[in-house]
């Protein structure tokens, strides 16, 4: 194994650490940065529980090396807040619309939805479903998750 110094801006804080060259970004986020909202689910990109934003784009951090994020900006669920420290609209909408049950998939779902809303601020229900594709929830059946994303976009949620 080769050790290398990796410097990543995570949620606005620069973290520089020497890690093994094979260290995954999810382990850097959890073990080095101590941010545990990013979950480890499958290690195969199948579930999306580890989704974070890298330079604003949704990435499954279980298949990205920390070295690949060197010098980049990473946002986790902990870093998703408004400028004034208020709860992010997605986090609030997930609570309001009951978009979670066990909560295991929620951080990854919210991060995938944040990326979607950055690219498409007023998505249709179908676009939301496509945008969160690859993030699995075994509890909710997705209806309330889609409602939460639509709500967070400022659109009317069909009842």
What features would you describe in this structure?
Helix 2 (89-96) crosses helix 5 (143-152). Strand 1 and strand 2 (13-20) form a beta hairpin. This protein has two domains: 3-79, Ubiquitin-like (UB roll) (Roll), CATH 3.10.20; 89-152, DNA polymerase, domain 1 (Orthogonal Bundle). Helices cover 30% and strands 17% of the residues. By secondary structure, the chain is an alpha+beta fold. 41% of the residues are buried. The protein has helices at 25-32, 89-96, 106-119, 125-131, 143-152, and strands at 3-10, 13-20, 51-54, 57-60, 73-75. A five-stranded mixed beta sheet has the order 2-1-5-3-4, sandwiched between helices. The radius of gyration is 16 Å and the shape is globular. The longest helix has 14 residues, at 106-119.
Q: First CA to last CA: what distance? A: 55 Å
CATH superfamily placement of the largest domain: Beta-grasp domain
Strand order, sheet with most strands: 2-1-5-3-4
Write down the Rg: 16 Å
Report the order of strands and helices: EEHEEEHHHH
Shape: globular
CATH architecture of the largest domain: Roll
CATH fold-level name of the largest domain = Ubiquitin-like (UB roll)
Helix content: 25-40%
Low-confidence segments, given as residue ranges, are: none
Beta-strand portion reads 15-25%
Major beta-sheet overview: 5 strands, mixed
- Number of extended strands: 5
Structural class: alpha+beta
Q: Could you name the CATH class of the largest domain?
A: Alpha Beta
Pathway: Alkaloid degradation; nicotine degradation
Keywords: 2Fe-2S, Iron, Iron-sulfur, Metal-binding, Oxidoreductase
GO molecular function, one term: metal ion binding
Protein name: Carbon monoxide dehydrogenase
